Every structure is written in structure tokens, then in C-alpha cells.
């Protein structure tokens, strides 16, 4: 019976149910990293329930916590009322919060999804400041569920701000200089500049072909009036930021109610530089704009610290927690400073399921296990090793644009072979790394005479950015599945540099992954990447999206087990 489930017509299910199309697996048993399908095949699951399974499938401490609540006869959903289960969860959560917030934190439960927590966080800062607009960044998803306009539901006061990254930097710089320019742009917007999108528009070399929100933006002068582009020094050290004063009515009338950002963007797996995060804290604090940090993807040890903001030492005003916070069950939480609300509570409540006792019990058990066993520190060390090895394994694969990530949150961006012969007038340029034989510097966009240049030294992309290749990412996902490895796909939003293409293969293994399992994961992924690169070079993978259920070509070996196997020759 179970073997026929994938073949049934989806008469009762919407077409938006996408995972079965890409991953035609019928899971019947699971433990830790391993999933067993109805056909008896075993897989290494590096999708981890889209990042919700910090401890993997059916971890004993999670199961014990759930059984304890069920056996006790306690109510299973108690919105807003204090219960022993809720009190235990809040106590454990406070033990893990960043210093500077733990002693001053208020915990607010929301509906089961991260979207509910985002809505609640935005309502909180609006109530606290008396203002309405929210500033967000290109590539941010924040659980809003729309890839075309992922931030529209938040009521942005401007177009998305530039999020710093190396491979697809909107300014064509990358490294600390690109992050510094992104920070200055944000500062200019908060001080009244009339734009939030760089006019150095991505060509095929810097983003996806076709029109994006950036391409559609009207031309604006470069640079904004408040920019000083006579030089781009290394970002200066940022002094400690004092506590924010009461926020009610603070700041100019046009100031936003808050700024929301991800320390690592979950869709494209793009880590923000620590220095840039400190700049965002400094910029928002100086203007009495609450800083909302969305830790839905990054929390509970995923990036190598219990909370990703701890890498930079930033203390936000509001934190959004979901995914792994429920220990595999639906739960979303907003944590905020106790002095944030001095003008009353927001007039709405986020969902009737905010009292999920099973999720609170599972979440408390997960938080305690990660803390006691120092799994965040292990994720940091193991993730660094995996990133280093994966970069070396893909160094000569031209279809891999960049390997990036932090801790056990890793992305591999697949790209096509095309690249512009040179930048068009008015666009940014990208320089190779030092020692590549390139010129010593590259003019900034719209900088008359090229007065501002970027040095070639620094952690910049090794080659110019190529267009995203979602068809290759889909092929890699399929080849991984044939080798017994489950991976996810992601990409930036349509307003970001990648144009919304799902060209990033995402690895989100549980924090409990062993060294042996990590080695097997790397072997299978490297084998899949090499197979796709080989097929693509032979013209076997046409440009365009693939049907994951296509028939195997003659001579192509299908893997019947989850074990690695030699590709067909």
C-alpha cells in the first residue's frame, strides 16, 4: 500500500505541495539522521524537516518529554495561561539567551509558524514606537510564504535594503568593502535618502536573467547625498552600544517602527559579516529604531553558536524563534526587551495554538540537550571542517559558484557557464582575488573617473559571478537522492541579486550528526556534483527545469540502496 502512495494522483492535494515532486520518498521510519522509505531504502536526511529537527528524527529525549506530557493527562493546548510545562520551557529558554537579553527578556508565544512570530514582532515594535514602517533586506524571507514579494506583508517603508554578500554583492565588491558600503547605504536611507536599492543593477553576470525588483527600480543618483565615497577604508571598530532609551515617540516622524534581518539568510544560506551586524545595531540604536533579529533558521546551535547573533556580540531588541525551537513540533516564540513596551500591548494575539504543550515540552528537552552536550560548539567545529573540505572538492567544478555557510547551515550555489564579457555602463565590476593577474583596483559604479577603487586583496569571489542555474541544482538534488542523500533547495527572493532562483543546494544536517555520517554525506554530495558537472559538460542536462521523475537514460545506473556507489561509465 505505502509503495503506491507517490503514484497516486494528487486529486485531494494542491500543486503547491512541492517536496514529493522533488523527493519521491515515502518515509515510514526514522531515527537521527537516517530515514527509511517504504521500499526499504535508507537515506541520510540533510533536510531535517526544513531545519526543524535540531536533534534529528525521534531523539530519545524528545520522545520522553512528549510521552511524559501525554501520560500526565495535562491539557495539550492552553493559550496564555501558565502551566508547569510552559514554565519549564521559559526557564530553559532564558538560560540560553544572549547575555544582555536573558535578564531582561519577555517571552511571548505565537501561533505555530514563523509567520505568526514575524507578525507579532512587527506589531510589538509598532505599538512601542507609534510608527508603522518596517525596514527589511533583499533576500529576506521571514516566513511570509511569498517568494515574489517576501517582505511586502511586513509593510516596508522602502525597497529592500542591500544585504552584504560576496558572490552576488549588489555593489560588485564583496568582502568588508561591500559590507561597509551596504551599511552606509542603510544609514543614508534611515537619514532620509530617497532610495534603498543600489542603481548598479545586476546583469547576467551579477544575477538572474530577466527582470527583478532591482531592474524595475527607477534610476537614482549615485551616490546618495550622505555618502562619502572619497575612500573606502576598512570598516572601523564599533564601540559598545548603550542601552536604548524608551522608544515611545522617539526619533523623527518618518523613522520606521523597526528593522528586521536574518544573521544568516535562510533561503540562500548567506551569512552576514559580524562587523556589519554590529553596524546595524549601532545605526538602529543611534536612531531609536528597534532591531528585530529573525533566528528562525539559525537558532538552537545551527550556526555554531546557540543563537547566531552571539557570533557578533549583538543584543537585539526583539528575537524571532521558530523551527527548531519546538523540538520537531510546531512552535513560534518572540523574545523582547522588558522595556520595549511602555505604551501598551498590541491589540491582537497571534493564533489559537500558541499554547501547544507538547511542543513546549519537546522544545525544552531540545534546548537542554543542546546546551548540556555543547552541540553548538560541535556544529561550529564540524561545520568549518565540512565547508573547507567541500570547497576543496568543488574547486575545479565550474558549475559551483560558491560554497558558503556557517556551522551546520551550508549552501552550494549552482551556476551556468554564461558570463558577460564586461560590465555595461554604470554597473559594478567584480575583481578576482589577489595574485590572479588582474588590475589592482576596479571603479565603483557611477563614480566619475573611478575615484573609488576596490583592492584586489581580500576574501572576494575567485571568479566573476555567473547566472544562477536552478536546473543544475535540481539535477544535483535528484542525483543526491539516487545516492541516498536528501538535500533541500533554496535561493534569494526576487528582489535580491539571484532573482529568486532556487539554485542553492542546502545542507541542514541535525546537530547530532557523527563524523562518520558527515564523511558519508560529503562523499555522496561530491559524487552527485561531479556527476551533474560531467553530464552538463556533455550536454546531457539541457538548460531549464527538470522533471524529477524523468526516466533514467540507457546505461544510467539507479542506486537501489542508500549506500554510495560508483557512477555509471
Reported for the largest beta sheet, the result is: 6 strands, mixed
Report low-confidence residues grouped into runs of 5 or more.
145-150, 195-253, 420-462, 545-569
- Helix content class: 25-40%
Termini separation comes to: 35 Å
Number of helices: 12
- From the spread of the alpha carbons, the general shape counts as globular
Task: Kindly estimate the percentage of residues that lie in beta strands according to DSSP.
Answer: 5-15%
**Biggest sheet: strand arrangement:** 4-11-10-9-6-5
Structural class category? alpha+beta
Series of secondary-structure elements, N-terminal to C-terminal: HEEEHHHEHEHHEEEHEEEHHEEEEHEEEH
Number of strands: 18
pLDDT averaged over residues: 75
Q: Tell me the radius of gyration.
A: 24 Å
Oligomer class: single chain
Describe it for me?
The chain has helices at residues 19-22, 48-51, 60-72, 84-96, 114-129, 175-190, 213-216, 274-286, 357-372, 375-393, 470-482, 515-537, and strands spanning 27-31, 34-37, 42-45, 105-109, 134-135, 258-261, 264-265, 270-271, 291-294, 318-321, 333-337, 400-406, 409-414, 441-443, 453-455, 485-486, 488-490, 504-507. Helix 3 (60-72) runs antiparallel to helix 9 (357-372), helix 6 (175-190) runs parallel beside helix 8 and helix 11 packs across helix 12 (515-537). The chain has twelve helices and 18 strands. The two termini are 35 Å apart. Mean pLDDT is 75; it is low at 145-150, 195-253, 420-462 and 545-569. The chain is α+β, with helices and mostly antiparallel strands and 569 residues long. The strands form five sheets. It has a six-stranded mixed sheet. Strands 1-2-3-16 form a four-stranded mixed sheet. Strand 12 (400-406) and strand 13 (409-414) form a beta hairpin.
Amino acid at each position: 500500500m505505502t509503495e503506491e502512495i507517490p503514484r497516486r494522483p494528487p486529486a485531494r492535494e494542491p500543486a503547491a505541495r512541492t517536496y514529493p515532486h522533488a523527493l519521491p520518498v515515502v518515509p515510514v521510519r526514522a531515527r537521527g539522521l537516517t530515514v527509511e522509505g517504504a521500499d526499504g531504502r535508507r537515506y541520510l536526511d540533510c533536510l531535517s524537516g526544513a531545519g526543524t529537527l535540531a536533534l534529528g528524527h525521534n531523539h530519545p529525549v524528545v520522545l520522553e518529554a512528549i510521552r511524559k506530557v501525554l501520560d500526565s493527562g495535562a491539557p495539550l493546548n492552553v493559550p496564555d495561561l501558565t502551566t508547569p510545562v510552559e514554565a519549564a520551557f521559559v526557564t530553559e529558554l532564558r538560560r540560553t539567551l544572549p547575555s544582555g537579553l536573558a535578564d531582561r527578556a519577555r517571552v511571548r508565544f505565537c501561533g505555530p509558524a514563523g509567520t505568526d512570530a514575524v507578525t507579532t514582532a512587527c506589531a510589538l515594535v509598532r505599538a512601542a514606537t507609534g510608527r508603522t514602517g518596517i525596514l527589511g533586506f533583499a533576500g529576506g524571507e521571514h516566513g511570509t510564504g511569498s517568494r515574489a514579494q517576501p517582505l511586502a506583508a511586513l509593510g516596508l517603508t522602502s525597497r529592500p535594503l542591500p544585504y552584504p554578500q560576496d558572490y552576488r554583492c549588489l555593489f560588485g565588491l564583496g568582502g568588508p568593502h561591500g559590507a561597509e558600503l551596504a551599511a552606509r547605504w542603510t544609514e543614508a536611507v534611515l537619514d532620509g535618502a530617497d532610495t534603498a536599492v543600489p542603481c548598479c543593477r545586476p546583469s547576467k553576470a551579477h544575477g538572474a536573467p530577466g527582470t527583478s525588483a532591482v531592474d524595475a527600480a527607477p534610476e537614482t543618483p549615485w551616490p546618495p547625498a550622505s555618502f562619502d565615497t572619497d575612500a573606502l577604508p576598512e570598516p572601523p571598530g564599533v564601540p559598545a552600544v548603550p542601552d536604548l532609551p524608551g522608544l515611545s515617540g522617539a526619533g523623527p516622524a518618518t523613522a520606521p517602527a523597526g528593522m528586521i534581518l536574518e544573521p544568516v539568510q535562510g533561503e540562500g544560506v548567506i551569512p552576514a559579516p559580524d562587523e556589519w551586524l554590529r553596524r546595524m545595531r549601532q545605526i538602529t540604536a543611534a536612531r531609536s529604531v528597534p532591531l528585530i533579529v529573525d533566528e528562525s533558521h539559525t537558532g538552537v546551535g545551527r550556526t555554531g553558536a546557540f543563537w547566531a547573533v552571539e557570533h557578533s556580540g549583538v543584543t537585539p531588541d526583539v528575537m524571532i524563534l521558530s523551527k527548531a525551537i519546538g523540538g520537531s513540533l510546531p512552535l513560534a516564540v518572540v523574545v523582547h526587551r522588558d522595556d520595549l513596551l511602555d505604551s501598551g500591548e498590541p491589540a491582537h494575539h497571534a493564533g489559537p495554538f500558541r499554547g501547544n504543550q507538547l511542543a513546549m515540552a519537546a522544545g525544552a528537552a531540545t534546548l537542554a540537550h543542546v546546551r548540556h552536550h555543547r552541540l553548538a560548539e560541535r556544529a561550529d567545529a564540524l561545520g568549518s571542517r565540512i565547508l573547507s573540505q567541500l570547497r576543496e572538492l568543488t574547486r575545479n567544478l565550474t558549475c559551483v559558484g560558491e560554497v558558503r555557510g556557517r556551522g551546520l547551515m551550508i549552501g552550494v550555489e549552482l551556476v551556468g557557464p554564461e558570463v558577460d564579457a564586461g560590465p555595461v555602463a554604470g554597473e559594478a565590476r567584480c575583481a578576482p582575488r589577489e595574485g590572479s593577474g588582474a588590475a589592482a583596483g576596479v571603479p565603483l559604479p557611477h563614480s566619475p573617473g573611478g575615484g573609488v577603487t576596490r583592492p584586489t586583496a581580500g576574501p572576494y569571489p575567485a571568479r566573476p559571478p555567473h547566472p544562477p542555474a536552478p536546473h543544475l541544482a535540481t539535477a544535483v538534488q535528484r542525483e543526491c537522492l539516487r545516492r541516498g542523500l536528501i538535500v533541500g533547495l533554496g535561493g534569494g527572493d526576487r528582489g535580491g541579486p539571484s532573482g529568486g532562483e532556487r539554485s542553492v543546494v542546502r545542507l541542514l544536517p541535525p546537530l547530532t550528526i557523527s563524523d562518520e555520517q558527515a564523511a558519508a554525506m560529503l562523499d555522496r554530495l561530491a559524487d552527485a556534483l561531479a556527476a551533474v558537472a560531467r553530464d552538463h559538460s556533455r550536454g546531457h542536462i539541457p538548460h531549464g527545469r527538470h522533471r524529477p521523475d524523468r526516466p533514467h537514460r540507457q546505461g544510467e545506473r539507479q542506486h537501489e540502496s542508500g549506500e554510495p556507489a560508483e557512477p555509471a561509465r
